[in-house]
User: What shape does this take?
Amino acid sequence: FELIDTDTIRNRRALVFNYSITRDKARQQITAAGAFDDSVITGMEGKVWIDRESFRVLRVESAATEIPESFRVRSANRIIDYDWVTIANEKYLLPSLSDVRLTSRENSQLYETRNLIRFKDYQKYGSEVEILDEDEEVPEEKPNQ
Assistant: This one.
């Protein structure tokens, strides 16, 4: 990571870092769906915005690198924004937006696809569980008379 700039995102002061991961060290996989699914591991590079006060991630931008020339997908770019969300009176840093764009080659034509997701209305869900020791006898339920 290399510090390259400062910025403001959603009224939060941020430090901006560059990063680059070569294909031999990366875990990013791109899959081209079609008659025969095909996938490759690529490198990636991008930027990360870190909140100057809380040191939390506010945004991640990435672009695939080292895509094999023979692969149908020519470019893959992603932006993920994070924001503070209140759930059950507690604050959590969660994704607020995801924007993924792929450029694919089909014969001599190039096509761009975009998947834009806005995350909202987060809810807290819960359940209650009772774990019993194996040696304990479970009381029999008596039917209502």
The chain has no helices and nine strands.
